[in-house]
Amino acid sequence: MFLLNVGYDWSLSSSFDDLRGVVLLPAHNYMPRFSSRSFDHARLLFDPQLYLASLDSETCDLTCSRLSTYPWFNTNNLPNREDYDNARLWQNAIRDDIANIWPGRNPAGDEILESCEQCIGFQVDIGTTFIILPSPLIIEREDEAENQAIWLDSSIEAVDNLDVGLPVLATVALDESTINDQAFEPAGFLDTIVDQISAREQIDGVYIVISRTQFDHPFSGSVNLAKAYIHLCSSFNQAGMENTIVNFADLIGIVCSAFGATGFGIGQSRPLRQMSLQAYREGGGGRALPHLYSHRSVAEYLSETHLDEITQNRLLNRVRDDSPFSNPLIRALRRGESASDVASWAESLNNCGTANRHFIHRMMQVGSELYGYGSSDLRRDHVREWLEGAAANTLYIHSRLGREPEDEQLGRVAPTQNWLDIFDEYDQ
Amino acid sequence: MNSLAVNLIIERLQACIPETYSIEGYIKSGGQGHVFRGTFKEQPAAIKAFNPSYGTERIQREIDFLSGANHPNLVRVFNAETIDVPDIDLPVPIVAYEFLHGGDLTSHLQPDSPIIPEEQLLQLGNEMGSAIEYLWSHRKVHRDIKPGNILISQDERFVLVDFGFTKHLDLSTITLPGQAPGTLGYKSPEQGRGRSSLTIKSDIFSLGITIYEVATKVHPFSRNQELIGRMVPNPLNSIRQNLSEPLSTLVSDMLRTVPAQRVRDISAQFEYLIGG
Fold first, then answer.
1. ipTM rounded to 2 decimals
2. Fold annotation for B105-275
3. What global pTM score does this model have?
4. Least CB-CB distance to B260: which of A145, A149, A235?
5. What is the CATH number of domain A2-280?
6. Nearest residue of chain B to residue A197 (CA atoms)
7. Would an 8 Å CB–CB cutoff place A336 in contact with chain B?
8. Angle, helix B200-216 to helix B118-137, in steps of 10 degrees
C-alpha cells in the first residue's frame, strides 16, 4: 500500500479521492492541529518521530518547537495553550523559549514508560489504524539496539496497560552511519535488530525509517542505505512479520514491496521523501523547480531544461509519464511546444504544485498495481521488470545523446542498476 | 576431586551450615563451587556451596529469579543462606535446590549409554522449550543450555538448572566486555560473536545443539565454536536414521544461523509432534 507522508500542507491528502493511507508527522505540525481534525483514510498512521529527540534546538528551532508540544518528548515547562489568545502567539512563545523547553535527548529511566503511554494514548485518541511504537534513533552499532529493546518492552507494557486493541508496529529507526558492510553479515547488526523485534510475540509488524547522513536528492542515497531497507524487509518477511511498512525510503520503498514490505510511505517534497536530521535545519530549502517524474526511466526531468532537449531528440516516449496532472504537459510537448507554454509546468521557482501532484498520483498508481497482485512472486516480477526497463531506457537515452549516465544535465536518474544488483542478491 | 579433599570440604561445611541443612554426599564440582547431596528441612536437596569469588551478584540474581519462578521445568530453590567458613575470608553462599534423582543428560552421551527414544526427545524439546519461553516472558535468556545443565527428576521431568549466566535485559551485564559467557560449542552464533543483547532465539539454538547431541551422541558442530554459524549440520535423521523427518526438520530449524529465521513457539512445535 502506498502511504502519503503528510507534512504541514494537508491540501494534498484531501485532493486525491482514492488515497487510502496517510502517515501523519509531528515534526511538521503542532499537536493541537491533529486534535482538531479528523481523517477518514482507510489506513491512518501516526509516526511519533521519537528518533528526532536529539535535534538541536538552536539550529532546528521550528521543528523542535513543534515536537515539544507532544508529551512523549518529555519537554520542560511548555507554555500553556490556554494562556494565549491564539495559536500563533502560543507557538511564538514556545519558539522564543525553545532552548529551555526542548531537552534534546531521549527520555530515560522511569520516563520511558510514561512517554510510551502518552504516545500510544495519543494515537488511540486520533483514531489511527495501527499503533507505531516510539523508538529512539539507533546511532551506535555496538549498542546492539539494547536501548531499542528497552523501549520495545516499555511500549508493550504500555499497550497492555492501555488495553489497546490495534495492531502494533515496532519502529526501527536507524542512522545511516551504523550501516557498514559488516552490518549485513548473518547474525550481524541488522539481524540483531530483526531478532530483537521478531522475538517479541506481542509485535504485529514493523515500521522502518533510516535517517540519511546527507540531506541531498532522494536518488543520491548510498548503496548500503538501499540495501539496508531491502535487507530488513526481507528478514522481517522471513521471520513471519505480518506488517512491514517502510518510510522515507523514497522509490526504494517500491523495491521493498518485492521483499515483503506491505506498505511504503513517500511525500511530495524532499523532507517528506527522505529522513535526514539535516533537513530540519532552519534557513535551508524553500526554493524548487518543477520536475516531471518519469516512472518508466525512474528519473526526474526539469520541465523545460531537460524535457526540451529530450523532446527535440525524439525521446519523449522514453520518459513520458501519464497522469491527469502530466497530460497537458505531454500533449504540449508533442505539439512541439515547451513546458513554458503550460503555466502549471513552467520552469519557474516554486511552481511545483502540479509536478508534486503528478508524482504522488503515480506513486498511488504504483501502489495499487503492486498490491493488486495476489502473489508476492508476481509483485517481485513486476518490480524487476520495472527496474530492468528503467535501466535500459536510461542507457538508451544517454547513449543517444552521447552523455554519461551520471550527467545531471540530463535529469536526475535513480541508480536503478545498483538497485537491480541488490535485488538479485536478495532474490534467491 | 579426590575423596580426601571431598571429605575435608564436607567436614568443614558440616561444621558451619545451619541446622536445617544436612550434607550426605558429594555430587560434583565446577567453576561455581561444589554440589552436594543432602537435605533441607528433611527434604532431599541438592546443596550448592558457591565459590565466594564467583560473584555474589550472579548468585543473588539466580536465587532472586528462581525463588519467584513457578515452572515445573525450572529447578526449585528451597532456601539460600551465606555461612562463615573458617579460613575463608568471604561469606560462602549456600543454596538448597530440589534434588533431581536422574542426573544430567551428559550421562546419555556416553557410547555405551542407552539410546533415548524419540518420544523422550520430543518431551525434552517440549519441556525445555516451555522453560526457555517462561524465561523469555520475563525477558531472561539462560545463555548456557547444554546437556550438563538439564537434569531429570524422579517423576521424569526434564529440569533446567544453573542460572548463573542468565541475563535480564534491563540489568547491566555482569560479564565484563570481551568476556562471552556460556559454554564453547553450545553458544549460538550471535552469542559466540559476543553479542550481549540476546533473545530467546539464542537459547533455542543451544537447545537445538543439545537435542541433536543427546539424540545422536554426535555434536552437530564437533564441539567447535568456530564452526557454529559457518556450517550447516547434517540432518538429525542422517545420523540416526530411525528418527522422524518432522523432528529432524524442527531441529534443523532451531539451528539456523540467523536468529530471526529460527523456529518460534518452540514448545508448541514439539507438542504438535507429540500429538502427531
1. 0.83
2. Transferase(Phosphotransferase); domain 1 (1.10.510)
3. 0.91
4. A235
5. 3.20.20
6. B260
7. no
8. 160
